From TrEMBL:
Name of one Pfam family that matches: Arginosuc_syn_C
Name used for this protein in its record: Argininosuccinate synthase
Residue ranges of every copy of the Arginosuccinate synthase-like N-terminal domain listed in the record: 4-165
Keywords for this protein: Amino-acid biosynthesis, Arginine biosynthesis, ATP-binding, Cytoplasm, Ligase, Nucleotide-binding
Record's keyword annotation contains Cytoplasm: yes
Subunit structure: Homotetramer.
Residues that coordinate or bind ATP: A8, Y9, S10, G11, G12, L13, D14, T15, T16, G117
PANTHER family in the cross-refs: ARGININOSUCCINATE SYNTHASE
Annotated pathway: Amino-acid biosynthesis; L-arginine biosynthesis; L-arginine from L-ornithine and carbamoyl phosphate: step 2/3
Lineage of the species this protein comes from: Bacteria, Bacillati, Actinomycetota, Actinomycetes, Mycobacteriales
GN (gene name): argG
Length: 400
């Protein structure tokens, strides 16, 4: 039986040239699979035709925008997913969805191999390959950029030698990955940590200092999921798209960070994720109102571990699945409205309301009508500090 390689196909230079290259290296056929995650830009039918023109025997486009929003972005909102408390997992949450569809395509088209375009320096090789082995360990994996030392200049040279039609040139120094959840930019002059980002790097956000009028928005949640904006019902995808526009117009969601990669190196990354950052900020504010103190305190640690698992390519791991179950159980009462102002690159929360709130005005107020019994506090404070008091007394007695 002829080998069939199912390729994660973006339509760019590297994956276009990978089609004839993989055919040459394996002697088999290539099936190109493109996933629409709301990245915008080129028409996906043009992408499909390019794959066929480069020699793919089959080319498939999967519209996965709603699936991505509902099954990958929404869990990230509920988990307040931020790697290193900063990065909203833009690329990390897209890889398991791509894996899922590549494995399904391999089953449908008789694929014997799966291939991706990742290098040996990044996290995505781990996310793809661990995902493949978790879902179908019988598939063989090919990573041309890593396994064959495939570089951009080699890709261009191979295209010219083999008459592969390509539109890209070597002029762009950046590596860019984007979807509806956000956009990631790296390499080029950004590799010098002292170089500031330039305006041309950004596509989802405007310059924060443009002087736009503030934009006040009300985001409504039900059980942790965004369900309305300014009173208008929305799907999760629609919520992300609208906030990408509105928060992006205010310069919200820009991030310049040095990231601890899974393989052990530090990497400078530029992100812009206006919708993601706005939704997570609003969700956290509603949790502050509706989640009990000890549960909220514990969940913050779970959220961090969930983000680590996802970043590290362990979306399908037993621990990640158990963390999902815990996080989902915390969202039962995360229902209500958050009012916020988007302006000059910042998000300001200025209103919270929920019928399931744990905030009790009569207990919180310092004015007439206060129902809090302050006589209980004296004994509480004494008992709360008792063990610390005893330990410090001992330490003073034995101080040297």
């Amino acid at each position: 039986m002829t080998d069939r390689v199912v390729l994660a196909y973006s339509g760019g230079l590297d994956t276009t040239v990978a089609i004839p290259y993989l055919k040459k290296m394996t002697g088999g056929e290539v099936v190109a699979v493109s996933i629409d995650l709301g990245q915008g830009g080129e028409d996906m039918e043009s992408v499909r035709q390019r794959a066929l023109g480069a020699g793919a025997v089959e080319a498939v486009v999967v519209d996965a925008k709603d699936e991505f929003a509902e099954q990958y972005c929404l869990p990230t909102i509920k988990a307040n997913g931020m790697y290193m408390k900063q990065y909203p997992l833009v690329s990390a949450i897209s890889r398991p969805l791509i894996v899922k569809h590549l494995v399904e395509a391999a089953q449908e088209f008789g694929g014997t191999h799966v291939a991706h375009g990742c290098t040996g320096k990044g996290n995505d090789q781990v996310r793809f390959e661990v995902g493949f082995t978790d879902n179908n360990p019988d598939l063989k994996i090919i990573a041309p950029a890593r396994d064959y030392a495939w570089t951009r200049d080699k890709a261009i040279a191979f295209a010219e030698e083999n008459n592969v039609p390509i539109e890209q040139s070597a002029s762009s120094p950046f590596s860019i990955d984007q979807n509806v959840w956000g956009r990631a930019i790296e390499t080029g002059f950004l590799e010098d940590l002292w170089n500031p980002p330039t305006k041309d790097l950004y596509a989802y956000t405007e310059e924060p200092s443009l002087g736009q009028a503030p934009d006040e928005v009300i985001i409504s949640f039900k059980a942790g999921a965004p369900v309305a904006i300014d009173g208008r019902p929305v799907t999760v995808l629609q919520a992300i798209e609208e906030l990408n526009r509105r928060a992006g117009a205010q310069g919200v969601g820009r991030l310049d960070m040095v990231e601890d990669r899974l393989i052990g190196i530090k990497s400078r990354e530029i992100y812009e994720a206006p919708g993601a950052v706005t939704l997570i900020t609003a969700h956290e504010a509603l949790e502050d109102v509706t989640v009990e103190r000890e549960l909220a305190r514990y969940k913050r640690g779970i959220d961090a571990e969930w983000s680590n698992q996802v970043y590290d390519g362990l979306w399908f791991s037993p621990l990640k699945k158990s963390l999902d179950a815990f996080i989902e159980s915390t969202q039962e009462h995360v229902t209500g409205d958050i009012r916020l102002v988007l302006h000059n690159g910042a998000i300001q929360i200025n209103g919270r309301r929920s019928e399931e709130s744990l905030y009790d005005f009569n207990l919180a107020t310092y004015d007439t009508g206060d129902t809090f019994d302050q006589t209980l506090s004296k004994g509480f404070v004494a008992l709360h500090g008792l063990s610390s008091k005893i330990a410090n007394s001992r330490d003073r007695r034995f101080a040297k």
